[in-house]
Every structure is written in structure tokens, then in C-alpha cells.
Design goal:
With 192 residues, the protein is mostly helical. 47% of the residues lie in helices and 6% in strands. It contains 8 helices and 2 strands, in the order H-H-H-E-E-H-H-H-H-H. A hairpin with a 5-residue loop joins strand 1 (72-76) and strand 2 (82-87). The longest helix is centred in the last third of the chain and has 15 residues, at 122-136. The chain is flat. The mean pLDDT is 93.
């Protein structure tokens, strides 16, 4: 009997082993060198920690699940009331939480709330984290990158930065379907 299962029919020898349990940052020498070269050295420890966390088999499997179990439009509740909610698989929410905890949704803009100057290399660090996370799953990256882009529009209206900035830059992902003012963190997107 070939393989470990009694259902094995043949030996598979022309496929690479699963790419999991590898370090997404330290295994990518070009990325690490680019981060250093482009001024992101202050974020190295954070990127090393993030690369170790998201290269694990369980996190990579979240990416698989998020692509297998597609979002479902729930236009009405069970009583016939209009809801227009999109139901996402829990894996999608877990990926969003990982990205937001890392600050991929807007960390280069933290200085606006801190009353400081922009941090050198902050954009490089966010892009490096986004690049690594897109190797796990790229679909959740759309609201993450759009939220980061919203901050560029808000900087010309300081009153709006004061209202939305703390929610955008929060490192807490809040998947609940409720008004933004009741949430600890928000993401932005576009609709048509």
C-alpha cells in the first residue's frame, strides 16, 4: 500500500510539498533588503514577527477557506425585512483582524493623531506587510488598501481626520454590522 491512507491509489511525485510553516519575511531576502534600503529599518522587528505569524499552516489555511467559502448577500432577514448584509466566512474576518492588528489599513498615517511628523519608512513597512499578507490571501486586501487610501483624502480636511482617523487607525477589527460611530475600528470601501 502506497501512502498513509488505505484509500491511496498511487504515489504523487510531481508536485512540490505544501508551502506552509515558513517565514514570509526572513525567507524573502530581497524583501528584507528592500525594507532596509528604503528606510523601513525601524519596522524590522514588527515585520519579522508578522512574517512568522502569517506563514503558519493555520493562517495559510484561513486564506484557502476565505476563497472557498465565498461571501453571500443576505438581502432579507428571515422575516422578510430588507437587510442588505454580506455574510463573510469567519476565515475572512480572521484575516482582516490580522491585517488590521499589523496596521496595514493605515499605519503610515498614525502621525496625524499623534501630532508628530510622518515617520520615515512607514509606507515601506506597510507595503511590505501588505505584500506578505497578499501571499496568504489577497481578497481581503481590497478594503485594507482602500482604507489606507482614504486617509490621503482626509488629510486635506482636518475636521474629518478628527472624526474618522481614530476609527480608521484603530488596531481593533470590528466585524459587527452596525453604525460606524458604534465601532472601535472601521474600514472603507467603494460601492456602485
Amino acid at each position: 500500500m502506497i501512502g498513509s491512507s488505505r484509500f491511496s491509489t498511487h504515489e504523487v511525485f510531481n508536485q512540490p510539498p505544501p508551502l506552509e510553516d515558513f517565514h514570509l519575511f526572513t525567507s524573502d531576502r530581497v524583501l528584507a533588503e528592500a525594507v532596509r534600503r528604503e528606510g523601513g529599518g525601524a519596522a524590522m522587528d514588527s515585520l519579522i514577527s508578522f512574517g512568522a505569524k502569517i506563514g503558519t499552516a493555520p493562517v495559510i489555511d484561513l486564506g484557502r477557506q476565505a476563497n472557498v467559502y465565498l461571501p453571500v448577500l443576505k438581502a432579507f432577514d428571515r422575516f422578510g425585512h430588507r437587510t442588505d448584509q454580506v455574510e463573510f466566512h469567519p476565515s475572512y474576518h480572521q484575516l482582516m483582524a490580522l491585517s488590521i492588528e499589523q496596521g496595514l489599513q493605515g499605519s503610515p498615517w498614525n502621525y496625524l493623531l499623534e501630532g508628530k511628523q510622518p515617520q520615515s519608512g512607514a509606507v515601506v513597512a506597510r507595503v511590505a506587510g501588505t505584500y506578505m499578507m497578499s501571499q496568504v490571501e489577497s481578497g481581503h486586501g481590497r478594503p485594507i488598501t482602500m482604507t489606507n487610501a482614504v486617509m490621503a483624502a482626509l488629510v486635506v480636511q482636518p475636521d474629518l481626520v478628527g472624526v474618522w482617523g481614530p476609527r480608521i487607525l484603530s488596531r481593533r477589527y470590528d466585524p459587527a454590522f452596525r453604525p460606524a460611530e458604534q465601532k472601535a475600528g472601521v474600514t472603507f470601501g467603494m460601492g456602485w
